[in-house]
């Protein structure tokens, strides 16, 4: 049995950091081993199903709600979920890629794409986040391998600098408009299966999407959203950012560092 230690560092090279800076995302192999994914993944999936409040049949849901079941801040349930989210390995990768002195938790999010689940429309996550800078990143951790028919996450490489589409939430409109703009400007789409243990990281402004789950098995994914340790709250620019402020950063003040009990520092380099 492999020893499970989520604080064990994962080395990130200067070339990988440069690639992330260029592309706005990166995929890293063997971040977790099979034992680690099984140990934490079974509990994360159990909690997701138990805490999910979606009761509408799949075929009657909106495009957004057909994309996945989602449950946020599983870490607050304690136990294995908290251990996973507070692991220094993932957080250390995030700090290295963001080139910051440390990272805080914005929130975690379990994304469970059911068999028959629809597309995840093209979007940029930071549309939802009232954050002052682009130093924020989502770690996308599949809890099993993700073959093409299961709907792996796909990225528009280099799109983190594009302004068009930043005002669109996840919707049929975002899928249509953002995809057309990405194609018109020739941004390459990186849409490949994920091996077991492979993890992607993408910036808040990197446009991405995912295909439907055409398989007979659920696509179970855990995400952790990290932000610069010194990230300041931005005055919300839409009602979704206002909601995020109230949910994930309660008590934080505009233009001040987001230092609340829900936003702990998860990684700082050893002194």
TrEMBL record:
Top-level taxon of origin: Bacteria
Gene Ontology molecular-function annotations: 2-oxoglutarate-dependent dioxygenase activity; iron ion binding
InterPro entries: Phytyl_CoA_dOase-like
Keywords per UniProt: Dioxygenase, Oxidoreductase
Listed cofactors: Fe(2+)
Stretches assigned to coiled coil: none
Gene3D superfamilies with a match to the protein in the record: q2cbj1_9rhob like domain
Annotated Pfam families: PhyH
Name under which the protein is recorded: Phytanoyl-CoA dioxygenase family protein
């Amino acid at each position: 049995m492999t020893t499970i230690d989520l604080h064990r560092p994962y080395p990130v090279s200067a070339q990988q950091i440069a690639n992330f800076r260029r592309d706005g995302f990166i995929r890293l192999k063997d971040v977790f081993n099979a034992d680690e994914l099984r140990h934490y993944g079974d509990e994360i999936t159990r909690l997701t199903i138990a805490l999910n409040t979606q009761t509408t049949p799949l075929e009657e849901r909106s495009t957004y709600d057909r994309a996945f079941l989602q449950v946020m801040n599983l870490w607050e349930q304690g136990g294995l979920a908290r251990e996973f989210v507070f692991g220094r390995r993932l957080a250390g990768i995030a700090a290295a890629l963001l080139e910051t002195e440390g990272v805080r938790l914005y929130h975690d999010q379990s994304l469970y794409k059911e068999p028959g689940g629809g597309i995840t429309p093209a979007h940029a996550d930071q549309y939802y986040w009232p954050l002052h800078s682009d130093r924020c990143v989502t770690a996308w951790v599949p809890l099993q391998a993700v073959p093409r028919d299961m709907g792996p996450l796909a990225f528009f490489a280099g799109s983190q600098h594009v302004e068009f589409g930043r005002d669109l939430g996840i919707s049929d409109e975002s899928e249509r408009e953002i995809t057309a703009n990405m194609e018109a400007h020739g941004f390459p789409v990186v849409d490949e299966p994920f091996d077991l243990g492979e993890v992607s990281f993408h910036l808040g402004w990197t446009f991405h999407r995912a295909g439907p789950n055409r398989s007979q098995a659920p696509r179970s994914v855990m995400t952790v959203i990290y932000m610069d340790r010194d990230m300041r709250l931005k005055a919300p620019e839409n009602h979704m950012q206002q909601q995020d402020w109230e949910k994930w950063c309660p008590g934080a003040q505009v233009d001040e560092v987001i230092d609340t009990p829900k936003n702990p520092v998860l990684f700082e380099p050893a002194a």
